[in-house]
Predict the structure.
Amino acid sequence: MTGDEELVNGVLLPGFTGVGVPDWLGRAADAGLAGVCLFAGNVGPGLPTLTAALHARRDGFLVASDEEGGPVTRLDATGGPAWPAAAALGRLDDVAVTEAVGAGIGAQCRGLGIDLALAPVADVNAEPRNPVIGIRSFGATPDLVARHTAAFVRGLQGAGTAAAAKHFPGHGSTHVDSHRDLPVVTADVATLRARDLPPFAAAVETGVRCVLTAHVLFPALDERPATMSPPLLDLLRRDLGFDGVIVSDAVDMGAIAAGVGTGPGAVAAVAAGVDLVCIGNPDNGYDDEAGYREVRDALLAAVGDGTLPRERLAEAGRRVTELAGWVRAAPAATADAGGLGERVARRVASAVGDVRVGRGAHVLDLTGPANVADGRRGEPRLAAALRRRDPSITAGPVAAAGRPLVLVVRGPSPALDAARAGRPDAVTVHVGPSGTWEPPAPSITLHGDGRAHADVAADLLSDV
């Protein structure tokens, strides 16, 4: 191992496949790898054993995971408590509850060996058609999102888990999912500062340890995505005064990988000021070791030819080491979940008309293409929740004749109109963010998705 390799490894956060430590990952950890990011395929009942094995590779090894609550969680597979979506917390608008949820998630993470939760979402969901943020955001106004972002950070970090406010400088007004392509936000600088930055400023003021970047283009400030933009990252450092770890969103996402490329994107990100490069989820269709090597080798080549100064890598590595030191020193708090997530989901849920469907209902999911950030596997959550009450429940893309029908939607759509034209008796379950649209009765509005919300909807639908 060369000194350059250790410098490069110290800024990398790859994903890997399986529920054990692959040989290549063990070698990389021994060679100074900063840590790993866990995805759904890594998480199961044996998670504490896996994280203990990862931490045993070397002192300061970081384990990260997307733990936002609601639909974006990897820890559901461990059978732990279910947490509400951020939109439900914003709807309730009780910062003490939001802090308690953050503390519960933080305690759960710390107890399972996760050091860094890539949460909360600090994006202001200013665009109702946003395909990737939606209920992951606390709401549509800067003040609301700012106070709940700060509360979630306090709770999470108070429980000994580092937080990463995301996606800087804001992914809430996009029409495109950066997992698939490069979104462009055409707002002027004044709008960006007034609408998108306040939640990040609140997170920084609260002492957030990390900020995660957006693969979003803001032409008013730069012609490069924020993850690779010195002017935008300087805005975070200089204007907001952030001196913690800047984490990239995954560089295997379409906005980077299908544009400049994963390796060059990682080089540009570190050169621009990113301290920790999240490589991404190899379950999406590439070899885990090859994905890591592609990014590592690109950074090594950039150091070798002078494109990337060693001083920049050393600075980034120092911040990552300080983050690991904070985690080690932070007392691990305990939090009694006590069904908090379901209580929040129940408080914000509402029903119009008679929504009881009896036994043998069919669930038709009209929410559209899967949100890649969700990481969901298997059948729709509502169908699973109903089946725990009624084994005769069915689910699928076509309504089953003669059965009560439940339509799951994120908002209005031609598919919903068509389904209701044939079945006006169908119950509509709205899981999307609240707004001006009200689902046709009989209906349930949840202000969130995920296991906690599905359980509440199943209770309302079931008459058993």
